[in-house]
Design goal:
By secondary structure, the chain is of the alpha/beta class. 37% of the residues lie in helices and 13% in strands. The chain has a single domain, classed as 4-Layer Sandwich (Purple Acid Phosphatase, chain A, domain 2), CATH 3.60.21.10. It is found in: Membrane.
């Protein structure tokens, strides 16, 4: 083997080690390097809850992109997502994992057979780490419709609920709850408005599309009715943080 390599032309002596180095770097070392830059999460109390947010994983479909290499592209993308997810879960050891919509790239246009295949791929990539890990799923426009001029399809909404067991409310502890707010279909959790008499839990709103982007009646109703402590949304490709001191969002007409 060593003699065979020594007999190769100079081009191959340079090209082959370079190719091997690039594969090693891009497939392994780059992920290891970035994982060392992640913050070390330490609980300050015994009652803390670690939450992992997964935004827009969008596993690839097989309808729009039918080039010759699409099976390889899907395989490589799934492998990358699975490996990254596994490393993140090992680093964070989350108690709750929230998927903030667009779980699939072509879920809203998939037929039932395709959707079942996408779901099987999804749960293989994003598996439940332990039996005690709480998994929360929120639909996105690529899952149920609503992107651009595409309408939200009621059968797609029902299908997502059936496959992912989507819930309006997920209570974590007596003092912590997650509420699913769907700006795409303009639907809210039922009978989950906070009481004015009892001690209220820390309320986390989950949505695919940002709630506070528009100052419309839906936004006012969400904030006034549920009085969220924090809102987590996805959809946008640029990360942003909005901080508000909210007493009430009731509008005044002059």
């Amino acid at each position: 083997m060593k003699r065979s390599f020594c007999r190769l032309p100079l081009f191959w002596k340079i090209y082959l080690p370079t190719l091997a180095g690039l594969i090693l770097y891009n497939e392994y070392l780059i992920h290891l390097y970035h994982s060392f830059q992640w913050a070390d999460l330490q609980c300050e109390t015994d009652s803390c809850v670690k939450i992992l947010l997964v935004a827009d994983p969008q596993i690839l479909g097989n309808t729009f992109d039918r080039k010759l290499y699409w099976p390889l592209a899907n395989f490589d993308s799934d492998r990358h997502l699975k490996r990254t997810y596994k490393r993140v879960v090992q680093h964070t050891a989350p108690d709750v994992i929230c998927f903030l919509g667009d779980l699939m790239d072509e879920g809203s246009v998939a037929n039932d057979v395709q959707f079942a295949d996408y779901f099987t791929r999804f749960v293989n990539i994003f598996s439940q780490p332990t039996a005690n890990t709480i998994m929360v799923y929120v639909p996105g426009d690529n899952d149920i419709g609503g992107e651009g001029l595409e309408t939200v399809k009621s059968d797609r909404v029902l299908r997502f609920k059936q496959y992912f067991n989507e819930q309006d409310e997920t209570p974590i502890e007596p003092t912590l709850r997650f509420l699913n707010v769907n700006r795409i279909s303009m639907t809210l959790p039922l009978n989950n408005a906070p009481s004015t008499e009892e001690r209220q839990p820390y309320t986390v709103l989950l949505s695919h599309m940002p709630i506070l982007r528009w100052a419309d009646p839906f936004t006012y109703k969400v904030v006034d009715d549920f009085q969220p402590s924090v809102i987590f949304s996805a959809h946008d490709t640029n990360p942003s943080t909005l901080r508000h001191i909210v007493i009430s969002l009731h509008r005044c007409h002059l």
